Amino acid sequence: MLSFLPAPLRGALAALLLALNTLFWCWPLFALSLLKLLLPFPAIQRTLRFGMHWIAESWIAVNSFWMDSVRSIRWDVQGLNQVDMQHSYLVTSNHQSWADILALQYQFNRRMPILKFFLKQELIWVPVIGLCWWALEFPFMKRFSKAYLAKYPEKRGQDLATTRKACERYRTNPVSVFNFIEGTRFTDDKHTEQASPYRYLLKPRAGGIAFVIDAMGEQLTALINVTIHYPDGRPTFWDLLAGNIRQVVLRIKAQPIPSEFLRRNYDQDEAYRLAFQQWVNQLWSEKDLHLAQLHEQFPAQR
Known about the structure:
The protein is α/β, with parallel strands linked by helices. It has helices at residues 7-38, 42-70, 99-108, 129-135, 146-151, 158-169, 188-194, 207-216, 237-242, 270-297, and strands spanning 74-78, 88-93, 115-117, 119-120, 140-141, 176-178, 220-229, 247-255. The chain has ten helices and eight strands.
């Protein structure tokens, strides 16, 4: 619908639609969130969460509409049949761009429970959207350096406590807890700085998903392991807004969470921590090989 316009104008209109969409849906979301605070009854809160999730899904649906309007992206997706709305999942993916989030929401919306991302604590101050994330009970995490923890050892384990508190609220409704294991977007500079052993990936950080498994345990049906590839190269968020992304390749794989990782403490059990890190490293080695295959199968288009 907007594809005939010049890219700068498409991008400006898409950014305006994104802002208006957010402002439209935030008010009913805040209203239900206030009701949830005022009515601390489990049955009522469970119903209100369904309403709040419906609002978030509607926001995503409108975003999908303007994404289709600025360009009809060619989606090559495999594995969506492995998820449904009735179960809870732990979801992860490689991370190349801010466009990843909207691409994942586009494909998973109303096919599995809403994705709830791990967020840095500072992001709660982002105007409007930060409050929306808070209302939807996204887990906000504060990372401490090793030097800080050495000086203030009482802060050790605070991330786990935050994760457990968030996950306790997820027990009444199906949820998809999402964590980018790399912790940040891939760039060539970060790849070089890390001396990453992978060709297309940064080093994985196992602690985040270990905390979720510790907190939610048997509630999780599977690990949903997503691999994202952009044949035209890593896009910026502006590329998404301006309709410059021509094709997105997604491969979705549901994998069982090993039973030996349930009911274990990542912070205090060294043997478990090493075994868990080895498992995650193996997942990442397989993903790196998979990305190499996708680069060959879907070469850059000119």
